[in-house]
Design brief:
Helix content: 10-25%
Number of strands: 13
Oligomer: single chain
Number of domains: 1
Number of helices: 4
Strand content: over 45%
Largest sheet: 12 strands, antiparallel, barrel
């Protein structure tokens, strides 16, 4: 199936899911995201985005992942999902202005959220039509509270195939000639362990402050790229949210 048809299918399924409920249930608000760059000379990225964490019928939003529940599976559902990210960058804003731009991937595939007594287990397996590569993620999440403040620690790992990595951090022969960098194409996929902590601070009534920090360790498939000047990446966000029941 072509990427455009997959996107339209997701929109159609979401519209059907929304029709099952009369309103959204969850948290809506404004989100400021700050992501450290791993590419030499590229500035850190800061963006202001909408914050969505909740559901409307079978359709759901989980900050950077959107989709719909398809059928029951175990202690959760099999889901159709897409991941929105900001891994792309502009070549002219790096240490190598002659470098071509890198568009952020938009992987689409399947996922599941399993709620168990040992915590939540979240898994995704996706294909990125732009690079022709694959993306996968596995996360474990727990919850505990201190007074009125809630904490959500997460441990997990992300996988990016060689084609996915090369689309972002590869150097083509033409780019090598223009920049003086060695050409590079990832020989294998990339496994990146990560740790995340999200904190929810009630502000009164339906208002809350959401704080989040994620540390991701880069492996050699990414570090070996001549574009990369880091061995890890940290992302943080701060959001003001309003809860709808």
């Amino acid at each position: 199936m072509k990427p455009q048809r997959l996107v339209w299918l997701l929109v159609w399924l979401a519209a059907g899911a929304m029709a099952e409920e009369d309103h959204f249930k969850g948290d809506l608000g404004g989100l400021m995201v700050h992501t450290a760059s791993v590419v030499a000379g590229a500035p850190a990225q800061t963006a202001v985005l909408p914050y969505i964490e909740g559901e409307w019928g079978r359709f759901y939003g989980r900050v950077d992942t959107f989709g719909m529940r398809l059928v029951p599976l175990g202690q959760g559902h099999l889901e159709f999902a897409t991941r929105v990210n900001a891994e792309g960058f502009q070549g002219r804003k790096t240490a190598y202005p002659a470098l071509g731009d890198r568009r952020s991937p938009l992987p689409i595939g399947l996922g599941t959220l399993q709620m168990t007594p040992a915590g939540a287990f979240i898994a995704y397996l996706m294909h990125d039509p732009q690079s022709g590569g694959q993306f996968a993620e596995l996360n474990w999440a727990a919850e505990f509270s201190m007074g009125s403040v809630s904490f959500y620690p997460q441990l997990g790992a992300q996988y990016r195939s060689a084609a996915y990595v090369s689309s972002l951090y590869g150097v083509t022969p033409a780019e090598s000639a223009a920049t003086g960098l060695a050409s590079y194409r990832a020989a294998g996929g990339s496994w990146q362990p990560m740790a995340t902590l999200q904190t929810t601070v009630p502000l009164g009534g339906p208002w809350s402050l959401q704080a989040f920090v994620r540390y991701r360790r880069l492996d050699h498939a990414v570090q070996d790229s001549p574009l990369v000047r880091a061995n890890s990446q940290t992302t943080g966000f701060l959001a003001l949210t309003y809860t709808l029941d």
